[in-house]
Amino acid sequence: AHQELVKARDVHVKNNPSLGDSAVNNREAARFVSASTPFAGKAFDVRVDGTYATALSSDTLQDELQRKLGLWLSAALPTLRVALERGMPVDFFGDYLYNKAHHRRPHDGVLAAWADAMRAPANAPVVHGDKEKPELTRQYNEGYKVDLAEPHAGPGGCDEVN
Questions:
Q1: pLDDT at 105
Q2: What does the pLDDT look like over 49-88, one tens digit per residue?
Q3: Half-sphere exposure of 48 (CA within 13 A, CB side)
Q4: How many CB atoms within 10 Å of residue 70?
Q5: Which of 62, 97, 112, 114 sits at a 20 to 30 Å CA gap from 104?
Q6: Burial level of 79, CB count in 10 A (0-12/13-18/19+)?
Q7: How do residues 34-56 score in pLDDT, each as one tens digit?
Q8: Cα separation of 58 and 60, whole Å?
Q9: Whole-number Å distance between alpha carbons of 77 and 10
Q10: CA 21, 24, 27, 29: dihedral to nearest 10 degrees?
């Protein structure tokens, strides 16, 4: 039922564009998948003990929650409204700026740490995917860009692919 609502929202936005909408195709569906993946909410799982290391600034928390929930980025609204008044293309969700930034670096850093953690107890190799060269991991899942794969580590000896 939720999937149908997400699809209906994406179709409505596509058929009824308005200023400030994100240009990301199927944005709500993509956001839902992204927000549902393992470790997607780790920024919110920090055990707060009052020290600086466990504190999440109010601005960061607000931005993370707004992105995760698919809301407009309220801190950027005044600046974006000025840009809109000047005729510039505007995205109140922050997708344009977020996707144009080098956000692969944090993603790749997390994957490298995850791969290291998987390799520590592994009895089989852990393969780190390469989005620039998907042919290197095509054998694990045709048509899918593999982040990490463990050959023969899944149930019944099948490949475990993430």
A1: 64
A2: 667 666 666 777 787 778 777 888 888 889 888 988 898 8
A3: 7
A4: 16
A5: 62
A6: exposed
A7: 777 766 665 565 566 667 666 66
A8: 6
A9: 22
A10: 160
